[in-house]
Amino acid sequence: MAGRVDLDGNPIKPITICMIGAGGFIGSHLCEKLMSETPHKVLAVDVSNDKIKHLLEPATLAWADRIEFHRINIKNDSRLEGLIKMADLTINLAAICTPADYNTRPLDTIYSNFIDALPVVKYCSENGKRLIHFSTCEIYGKTIGAFLPKDSPLRQDPAYYVLKEDTSPCIFGPIEKQRWSYACAKQLIERLIYAEGAENGLEFTIVRPFNWIGPRMDFIPGIDGPSEGVPRVLACFSNNLLRREPLKLVDGGESQRTFIYIKDAIDAVLLMIENPARANGHIFNVGNPNNEVTVRQLAEMMTKVYSKVSGESSLETPTIDVSSKEFYGEGYDDSDKRIPDMTIINKQLAWNPKTSLWDLLESTLTYQHRTYAEAIKQAMSKSTAN
């Protein structure tokens, strides 16, 4: 760690980071990176520490004096402002961000992503503290290309579907499509942060993740999450593969997505942390435009990768089609393509993702097979016995 310098050759000084949502998927990987590769201190704030327990115990770990866990629900805990005051930088990762919740729990979704984030922004602004806020690629909504005639050659023009932080419009569905409650709440908190920067000098960076994938993401229903829950697409497919069930393709699996490996994405976040002069005032897409597939193609690839890592043969019928109404309930709507423009992050932080889709799926499914396969077998044999 000695002699570390930023992108402009300046020595990197140790800082204290208040990380809200440190116990989640992204937070756990970011904490690992900060502990193993930097001298920074982390005040880890969350309601659970399961995913970072290996960083907190035993007390003899090399970084034991650089990470503290604070079990706090930011909805109603007066200790939060004190922790933000103690830190040089606050990173807010807290959110409800599971698509199945957007139209079944729209109020919780709006409160979690807008109302609960308001005090964090306020405390940072009032105390002159820097903020890195995690938003979402969902705030772009649908692409302009989605509204062109199906046979229009303009659909092939990147100007109509590549998403740019500073020029792309944010196009949401009608109010009755409650799926957009998440994107709308996230967009409004972004606008508030941007306004705090413009009016009150808040130093901020906004991150828009595009499908970050890797070990510890999301949950496997009934094993490390609620049995009735519906996680995001990759964990849904993983759950099906582990249980040897067909993968459910919502509305034919025609939506297109790009996926990025969590470790590549965390490298980008560390650059933002340690290069404030280059990151402040910017909104960054963090994704991998080279890893674009339809959801159907993702299912086919995951089936092949899982056969490789588990040694199990594929099912005779690996996928089945379901309607979005049947899968997500009334009020669901979807974006068509999500391809990030990488111009700003490339220019400001000289960052590019490295890991291919096959490699990131192999890493994730190897972890999930090793972690969950036995627990799922036991759960299935119990239910059969009953």
How does this structure look, described?
With 386 residues, the protein is α/β, with parallel strands linked by helices. It has a single domain, classed as Rossmann fold, CATH 3.40.50.720. Helix content is 39%, strand content 15%. The protein has helices at 25-37, 53-56, 79-86, 99-102, 106-115, 118-126, 181-200, 233-242, 262-274, 276-279, 295-310, 324-328, 343-349, 357-385, and strands at 16-20, 41-46, 67-71, 89-92, 130-134, 162-163, 204-209, 212-213, 247-250, 256-258, 260-261, 282-286, 292-294, 319-322, 339-340. The strands form 5 sheets. Strands 3-2-1-4-5-7-12 form a 7-stranded parallel sheet, with helices on both faces. Strand 1 (16-20), helix 1 and strand 2 form a beta-alpha-beta unit. Helix 1 (25-37) crosses helix 9 (262-274) and helix 5 (106-115) runs parallel beside helix 7 (181-200). The radius of gyration is 21 Å and the shape is globular. The relative contact order is 0.13.
